[in-house]
TrEMBL record:
<keyword id="KW-0488">Methylation</keyword>
<comment type="similarity">
    <text>Belongs to the proteasome inhibitor PI31 family.</text>
</comment>
<keyword id="KW-0647">Proteasome</keyword>
<dbReference type="GO" id="GO:0000502">
    <property type="term" value="C:proteasome complex"/>
</dbReference>
<dbReference type="Pfam" id="PF11566">
    <property type="entry name" value="PI31_Prot_N"/>
</dbReference>
<dbReference type="InterPro" id="IPR013886">
    <property type="entry name" value="PI31_Prot_C"/>
</dbReference>
<dbReference type="InterPro" id="IPR021625">
    <property type="entry name" value="PI31_Prot_N"/>
</dbReference>
<dbReference type="GO" id="GO:0043161">
    <property type="term" value="P:proteasome-mediated ubiquitin-dependent protein catabolic process"/>
</dbReference>
<feature type="compositionally biased region" description="Gly residues">
    <location>
        <begin position="291"/>
        <end position="312"/>
    </location>
</feature>
<feature type="domain" description="PI31 proteasome regulator N-terminal">
    <location>
        <begin position="22"/>
        <end position="168"/>
    </location>
</feature>
<dbReference type="GO" id="GO:0070628">
    <property type="term" value="F:proteasome binding"/>
</dbReference>
<dbReference type="GO" id="GO:0004866">
    <property type="term" value="F:endopeptidase inhibitor activity"/>
</dbReference>
<keyword id="KW-0007">Acetylation</keyword>
<protein>
    <submittedName>
        <fullName>Uncharacterized protein</fullName>
    </submittedName>
</protein>
<feature type="compositionally biased region" description="Gly residues">
    <location>
        <begin position="231"/>
        <end position="248"/>
    </location>
</feature>
<feature type="compositionally biased region" description="Polar residues">
    <location>
        <begin position="331"/>
        <end position="345"/>
    </location>
</feature>
<keyword id="KW-0963">Cytoplasm</keyword>
Amino acid sequence: MTSNVLDPSSILHKIAQNLPGSLTSPYDALTAATHAAMLSVGFKFAGLGDDARQEGDGTQTKLPEQWNAQGPHVYSIRYSHPQSSLTFIVKSLKLGDKWIVHGLGIDDNKTATLEVNTDEYTSQSFYPYTSTSDQPLVNGFISSTRLNDFLVLYKINIIQRLMPGLTKAGYTEEESSSTTTTPSTTATPRTDRQPQPPRPPIFDTPTTPEQPFSGRAPNSVGGDDLNPLGGPLGGIGPLGGGRGGGMFVGPDHPMFNNRRDLDDPAGVFGGPQPLPRGAVPPGARFDPIGPFGGNPGRGGSMFGRGGRGRGSGRSQFPGEPDNDELPPPVSQSARPETRTTTSSL
């Protein structure tokens, strides 16, 4: 069974073999690691820069002396592969504390990108490093495990994007094609809670999700105009406007459900639905919206079923206004004096 060609120990060995000078920074080390990874899966070094030229016969593996002349800011290396006719460019750059890699197949124009934080994989205090250093190169990385994590990300985001279906002994593609640059745990959405319907602030408190409002919304009045006689749910005749709705409004029309008496302190009476507390600012002039009358649920309703008149007492037609257009009654003092005479027997 062939070993993994991207094993961290194998990559560290290839870095040491193909390092022409020193690694002056963690960015040098990551670039050298990606170069070793490209060589390990069959890519051939084709030169430095962004053009499509292929230098040499593909047998050179060691990077030129000037490979990190613009480092740690920019690195650009070209490659070819026996299984493709394209020339590939791997260009990396430093952006703050991040290291960003872009891969491109010339004439293919499909870009692959990887972004990592250098301090999550490398040790800043270890560098510079040369082949004559006393410490092993593995100490330039956080650990072999973290180096392996970096190589897996590079394989998923760069190699598999540039050369999908690449065949190489000791190389297998990862099943996941995630572009995540750091390992993360995907949050599983909760399914035990269903979203509740929005509740406008002027309605009563919802009781259940299936019946969010205890009363009839005022803006739904008129919704049954296409069925003027109302539905079968409690209609009381052609002009009844019963509980089934309809355009003919009667005392039992659904718009009058859940009314409160005028004396109910729970809210300001404002029509089919009481207004909530605070709807009328303190001291503001407010004319209540009729029609007035007792709550149908308490034995009274509008149109003379035990409703209150607007005068001081009960009117002839309870729930209707008094005959305010009539002149006021004459007071006792204003009546003409009358004398009563009695006859004596």
